[in-house]
Amino acid sequence: MNREQVSRVLQQHGALMVLGALVVVGSLAFDSFATPGNAASVVVSSSFLAIIAIGMTFVIISGGIDLSVGSLFVLGGVLAAYGSQYGTPAALLLPLAVCGVVGLLQGLVIARTGMAPFIVTLAGLLGVRGLMLAISDEGATTYLVEDPAFAALGQGEVLGLSYPVYITAALALAAMVLLQRTGFGQNVYAVGGNEQAAALMGVPVNRTKVQVYVLSGLLAGLAGALNAARLSSGVTILGIGLELDAIAAVVIGGTLLTGGAGGITGTVAGVLLLGVIQSLINQVGNLTSAFQQVVSGAFLAFVVVAQRLLSKAQRLT
């Protein structure tokens, strides 16, 4: 294996390697770490972030960014809890429809005006958060999940794992196929790699941009709906900073912030890595949860620098 191949493997699978190393270290250092209960806790708590991060992966590979997903996650939860009084279909379709429309509007603005995705989705973050506060009377009203069937979607278990874990796994597999085996996936890579060249090759650049933001909005809304089912209510104080966690997981997983490279496997590994770091901090006992943000931030900075160095190494070979 030559230098270029080593660099590519490290960039694509580095998060998975670090995840494996941390699991081994944690298992040796703490007796309660490598238990089925702790493993299930990490996987279940990571499933909602993973759904959001899957959508974020498509956006970042296309060369964009979506800062609105945290607010869409909360809005999706509130709308799902509100819609549950009309049954499970309404509890799922209402947040998907609203969050999908928000993604559509953001995608259209970005594609048609050429505005920076950072600015457009930052406006979306603020606007969606305001919409959620308006619906919930500025957070004073908490809608409860009234449909037992919908609540079971978030609380039911199979083999010790709740349904959202299996839904996340199915979405990750579908996203892998969509990204690697379809024309849409190839368009996403092409647009992120070189937008001008993609346009010259006949790739529908604007349509691809709109599609990735719609997908991101839909998945953020779905994650919020499943979380509401799990908690039996549309909690309004969640989701703050969740967009940063999703971006961190995607980048840690090997997706380049500049676009054109990345994958779902790395993103899932990045999400689990953040979950394992939090679990290890909890195992220590005398560290606060805020320390997890410090560790995650430091690790993210390290990964970005490493990606830069690996990219240079590939260009030199």
From TrEMBL:
The record's listing under CDD domains reads:
TM_PBP1_transp_AraH_like
Cellular location(s): Cell membrane
Give me the segments passing through the membrane.
Answer: 12-30, 42-60, 67-84, 90-111, 118-136, 161-179, 210-229, 235-257, 290-310
Q: How does it sit in the membrane?
A: Multi-pass membrane protein
Cross-referenced Pfam families: BPD_transp_2 (PF02653)
Q: Which domain of life is it from?
A: Bacteria
* Location (main, coarse): membrane
| Sorted UniProt keywords | Cell membrane, Membrane, Transmembrane, Transmembrane helix
Q: Does the keyword Transmembrane helix apply?
A: yes
Q: Does the keyword Transmembrane helix apply?
A: yes
Query: Which InterPro entries does the protein's record reference?
Result: ABC_transp_permease
- What is the recorded name of this protein? ABC transporter permease
Q: Lineage of the native species? A: Bacteria, Bacillati, Actinomycetota, Actinomycetes, Streptosporangiales
